[in-house]
Amino acid sequence: MSWLEVVRGGILVTVQDRGRPGFAALGVGTSGAADRRSHDSANRLVGNDPTAATLEVTLGGLRVRAHGHATVAVTGARIPLLLNGVPRGDYSATHLCDGDVLTLGHATDGLRSYLAVRGGVDAAPTLGSRSTDTLAGLGPAPIRTGDHLPIGQLARQWPAEDLIPPPPTVGVTTLRVRLGPRNAMFAAEALDTLFGQVWTVSQDSNRIGMRLTGPVPLVRADRGELPSEGMVTGALQVPASGQPVLFLADHPVTGGYPVIAVVVDDDLGSAAQLVPGATLRFARAH
């Protein structure tokens, strides 16, 4: 049976699939790939079942050695990709022979890359998912140097997609939002501020959430206490500072600060690729 040896771990490498929905009442979030579109693209390139797990690699730096034959693909953040020291292309399938070494360089555009292997990463599932939830501590431990990663059998019949166009590079990212559920708690000018100014991703960001900073904070009109309520991925929660936090894949299932808006599902992948220092705008979803 083929497997991958982790010759060098990256800054943060986790096993991810499409998550474990349906357990919020138990205090367990969905988790899963932060950029699901890129995760799904990697699986399609190697002909995997959609439920197959990939490796989510933050800022690159991963190096693996094949034991046996394997077919892999890398999508998401753009990175230099080397096979035995020879450059190869991302967003396309690459075939590995026994002993081949695949190196993911440091990301040049974006934050998270996805390494799929035909058959999927065969980690033990927890509550029906192989995803690593960094907040709850569920799922496989983050990948480390020296780990042995078995390859599963979640492959479909060939042919797979040979090539998927990578997303275009943009300057200031625009994330579409739907207002609510607590936008009425904010002053009228807060909405002008939300949509009118450019926000910057702070260093205080991870798979749980992304703290944003802007020159003008979001001002609340109603400063009454708000009991804890359910939170969803994409929720834009506003603490007392007025500087919002965008909840990502491993967010808590409840929160006590008001949510002024929620990012639409189709834009969550773009949000997950924003590095600290990147800028973004919000726009109303139509």
Model description:
The strands form four sheets. A seven-stranded mixed beta barrel has the order 12-19-16-17-14-13-20. It has a six-stranded antiparallel β-sheet with strand order 7-6-9-4-1-11, with no helix packed on it. A five-stranded antiparallel β-sheet has the order 2-3-10-5-8. Helix content is 8%, strand content 34%. It has two domains: 3-150, no CATH class; 173-284, Cyclophilin, CATH 2.40.100. The protein has three helices and 20 strands. By secondary structure, the protein is mainly beta. The protein has helices at 36-45, 188-196, 268-272, and strands spanning 3-8, 12-16, 54-58, 63-67, 70-78, 81-83, 86-88, 93-96, 101-104, 109-117, 148-150, 173-179, 199-205, 209-213, 229-230, 235-237, 245-247, 254-255, 259-263, 279-284.
Strand order of the largest sheet: 12-19-16-17-14-13-20
Number of domains: 2
Distance between the termini: 50 Å
**Number of DSSP helices?**
3
> Can you tell me the overall shape?
elongated
Helical percent range?
under 10%
Helices and strands, in N-to-C order?
EEHEEEEEEEEEEHEEEEEEEHE
Strand percentage lies at: 25-35%
Pick out its properties.
286 residues, mainly beta, Cyclophilin, 2 domains, 7-stranded mixed beta barrel, 20 strands
Summarize the structure.
Helix content is 8%, strand content 34%.
SSE diagram, text form:
Blueprint: E1 3-8, E2 12-16, H1 36-45, E3 54-58, E4 63-67, E5 70-78, E6 81-83, E7 86-88, E8 93-96, E9 101-104, E10 109-117, E11 148-150, E12 173-179, H2 188-196, E13 199-205, E14 209-213, E15 229-230, E16 235-237, E17 245-247, E18 254-255, E19 259-263, H3 268-272, E20 279-284
Parallel strand pairs: 12-20
Antiparallel strand pairs: 1-4, 1-11, 2-3, 3-10, 4-9, 5-8, 5-10, 6-7, 6-9, 12-19, 13-14, 13-20, 14-17, 15-18, 16-17, 16-19
